[in-house]
Design brief:
The chain is mainly beta. Helices cover 11% and strands 46% of the residues. The longest helix is centred in the first third of the chain and has 9 residues. InterPro entries: SHD1.
Length: 236
Amino acid sequence: MKISFLLIGLLLACSAAFAEPRVWTLKNGKTLEAEFVSMIGGKVSLKTDRGKVIKVPEEDMSAEDITYIELSSPPDLDLSASRTTKQRVFADSLSELPSAMYNDFTAVVKQKSTRPYNHELTLEFFVVGEEKAGDKFILLDYKKENFRLSDGSRSVFELPSKTIELIEFEMNGQLRGELYEGYMLVVTDSRGEVIAHRAKNEDWFTHIENLRKLPVGKMFDDNCERAWPTRPKRFY
């Protein structure tokens, strides 16, 4: 019953061809190698390698094939993040830490489409800073959490970051420290396929596998590989 309910929104969907043919299995055990064409009015249209379109009733399709169709039609998502800040200025002008900025971020995933989608999704939230007077990035925070879009349309999921402290200080007459640079949000489905992302710097998304391996608080270069501070040098 749940599968049928989820497919109500798909019945009026426009046809969408999948690039690769696959083997479809019917409930009676018969198989068919074909490309998915569309699902309209409770009928699944499949095209064979000879170009013949075969229409199969939805109720005759296996649960695995129905899930494949649902996952291949992900929801339309809007990704954003909000930021609140609070600054602390140290009273002692001779202090090595003249000021600190406390930042709180919240990642927001909004469903724009009205079609129900009842499969688990995963949100990854990267908060990135940069050196002041340097050219390296800093992974300020990384969060990862599974979620489901709530029943009904236009549901919202939020994921807060930890409180991030960015400090500015003077060293050898030069103002140094950390600045906020931007964020990246990545949403994947239960297969691990990316269905939506938003990044201040597309290099972060290109090299996301490197970024996923980086410990929070460490610096990285344009390829998202571990890097040393520009100067002065720090030793770990």
